[in-house]
Automatic annotation (TrEMBL):
Organism: Arachis hypogaea (Peanut)
Name recorded for this polypeptide: Fiber protein Fb15
Amino acid sequence: MALRNFVNEIRGLKVKELPNYIKPKLSLDYIKNSFNRGLDNYYTKYIETSSPDPLYHVCFGGMVLSYLVNLPEERRHYEHLEHERLAKAHGSWLLSWRWSACIIILFENLKNQGLTMLLPSMYFSA
């Protein structure tokens, strides 16, 4: 609603008048007064009327905040799952980093024990 009012006020201005109109609205005092007016309006609308809405605002705000804090970890997790899914979709279990790491360690142990005849020749080129 406030953005609509702001746009309607700007429509009536000429381009030369626009900086003089916007500059005072970006001052620190104007922003502080706007914030205080918003808090006063919230207090009048919800607190004085004994409405349960502020409790809902706190609960849903906490859920949104916790989701946003946890979002980077969730994205890393889903990226890892996508990698695993693509590895399985291509039918190659060797593309999975877990299996390839295990096989490399196994082949290195076999090589260290001198069991070279069991190793694939393409893995250990002489």
